[in-house]
Amino acid sequence: MKSKFYASENYWNRELSWLLFNKRVLNEARDKQNLLFERLKFLSITASNLDEFFMVRVASLKDMVNAEYTKKDIAGFTPKQQLEKLNVATHELVNLQYSTYNRSLYPLLMQHGLQLITRHEELTVEQAEYVDKYFEESVYPVLTPMAVDSSRPFPLIRNKSLNIGALVSNRKKEKKELEFATVQVPSVLSRVIEIPSKEGLKSIILLEEIIERNIGKLFLNYDIVCTYPFRIMRNADLSIEEDEAEDLLKEIEKQIKKRQWGQVIRLEVESGIDKRLLKILQEELAVEKEDIYHIDGPLDLTVLMKIYGLEGFEQYRVEKHIPQPVPEIAEGDNIFEKIQKQDIFMHHPYQTFTPVVDFIRQAAKDSEVLAIKQTLYRVSGNSPIIAALAQAAENGKQVTVLVELKARFDEENNIVWARKLEKAGCHVIYGLVGLKTHSKITLVVRKEEDGIRRYVHLGTGNYNDATAKLYTDVGLFTCKESFGEDATAVFNMLSGYSEPLSWNKLAVAPLWLKDKFLYWIEREKNHALNREPARIIAKMNSLCDKDIIAALYEASEAGVQIDLIVRGICCLKVGIEGISENIRVRSIVGQFLEHSRIFYFENGGKSEIYCGSADWMPRNLERRVEILFPIEEEELKKKAFHILEGELRDTMKASIMLADGTYEKVDRRGKESYSSQDAFVMEAKEDAKKSKEGMNKRVFVPAQHME
Questions:
Q1: What average pLDDT does the chain have?
Q2: Which pick of 94, 125, 287, 480 has the fewest CB atoms within 10 Å?
Q3: Are strands 178-184 and 146-148 parallel, antiparallel or unpaired?
């Protein structure tokens, strides 16, 4: 009976599901109701997303094919079959990206006062003079032209770099042979250059156009036959033998360098490229024909984020949201005193991340604090949290920090922080062998009049003050003894080998969390069978764990009403007769990146709500250290549930999964226009205003009451 829930035809392929997510992001770029520059931003994000998808997911599948690995995925496809399907889908997505740019956004930019010159031949005489002077003074000294001949081999083309390939002919040679030459468009210079323009218009040109225009100055004594930009993507998936690595930090440093030499898995060229030039690139880079993308427009659309930031177009961007104060914590408050009074629930970026930073800062300076322990997965470039931890160690506190060196594409950043913390005297742990530590937890141990008290912060997002302004996450401050004991057990597990026999409040992966989720889902199923209130609402980034999905199918069949809010990958199918008719899936793509994980179980009328760092994916539940924590106070449970309610009510930014796996925006006929993100922004402002008014009332003392 159970086997039907596991049948491969009841699951979507993970990679194709991810592409559908990126298409939902692209739909925001195509949505005419969004402001023009916001549409540019979303198109840029789709390009950045696709780059990472190729470097990691496509690269991984290619490795499997090369290793003749034939095990089928959750949907019953071999790696080779997945690559074939992805090849078709990614080409379609890229075509849609550029038709969106060429047919919609590019013409609109001109209409709204921004001229992007895409061909240097279009420059006026004045603009041409300016561009040539700019090249001589600012660009030429930075460039390294590279010719290829018998004495100079084909150069290393760096991953994700933009280059200009050329066919050249030596004037001095009687026999005119075509030779290949290339120059990298330097990433140290801005790719978007503002040039003189007519009044009421801002004109810009891309750096590669300026270099193409002046490329003859780089190859003197050569005739330039043709020039075309190209860009490559390499396999960037690190393979680290942790068991054999004597020093994990040095091993990761070595592997990072290898990213520049990885197999080329995608070649982007300008459409119309000379066939002779393309043949050289294809052979030298060993690229398959299906991995070549002929691009009708500027290569690497992440450049649109630079255009998004141009001054003078504020009316075409959404007003920047300023995170609001957390009502329970006023500026200058002693955070420890506030946490003693009550548990505090925070919703970022609607509410500011500052209390979390201040929690570490105050602990670093507080003479009563004995120890600080924290996990770090991704931190910002100039992290105030790192500075506070270093200061705490210098102040004589016992500071233990787990820095996850294997956080993908943040490895170099994290190595720098790890070394800085070690220099300051912190005890630094580099994660556990074979596991990534993805949990978000901080423990502060404080000596107080009535003994030792432990203060804990738990969150769904990284300790990154920069992304905390862009990602939606929730966090909890508590000093309850049960949470403190569990937090201590977590850090003892990370720094030593001790695994607690039981937990008070926390559920921790990889050993206990998945079983907890399966138990809670089965409990809802049993409530439904007993005709008791049964409902599941789960919000996460991705859903692709087969056991979890099968359990949800079984609960749905029993009559449990299930609402899933899944931003990205979702391998679950809706609308399967007798299996998933009671399951609904929605995805929200808006101004902020949905990142919080919140899980609600109705539990026969005794509802429970949990938040944590884990998605419902095998890697989170089986190969990472993750933490799930309960929200227990009734007032805080209402706040967490309100987030889920708001997102289920969203009619503006929500897309609904259909039975064929595609998504469509909510049908708004007869429904109010409601954006959950906009509503949360307004609510945070209102809460902060009420809190300020309340404080002012408390401070005001009428004159007749003064002595």
A1: 91
A2: 125
A3: antiparallel
- Domain 508-674 fold is Endonuclease; Chain A (3.30.870)
H or E element: which one contains 194? strand 192-195
Report DSSP state, residue 12: -
Q: Report d(CA 246, CA 250) in Å as an integer.
A: 9
State pLDDT tens for residues 128-181: 999 999 999 999 999 999 988 767 788 889 999 999 999 999 887 777 788 999
- Structure tokens belonging to residue 362: 């105050």
Distances, alpha carbon 419 to alpha carbons 28, 361, 440, in Å: 41, 20, 21
Helix (H), strand (E) at residue 643: helix 634-649
1-118+301-319 matches 137-296 in fold: no
Cα–Cα–Cα angle for 431, 432, 436, rounded to 5 degrees: 70
- Cα 395 to Cα 399: distance, rounded to the nearest angstrom: 10
Structure token pair of residue 511: 């050993």
What pLDDT was estimated at residue 707? 31
Class of domain 338-500: alpha beta
Q: Which of 222, 245, 343, 265 is nearest to 52 (CA)?
A: 265
Question: For 1-118+301-319, CATH number?
Answer: 1.20.58.310
Q: Which of 120, 347, 438, 457 is catalytic?
A: 438
pLDDT tens string 61-80: 998 888 888 999 999 999 99
Domain boundaries, the chain: 1-118+301-319, 137-296, 338-500, 508-674
Which pTM does this prediction carry?
A: 0.92
The three-state secondary structure class of 333 is: coil
Domain 137-296 has CATH 3.30.1840.10: yes
| DSSP 8-state secondary structure symbol assigned to residue 286 | T
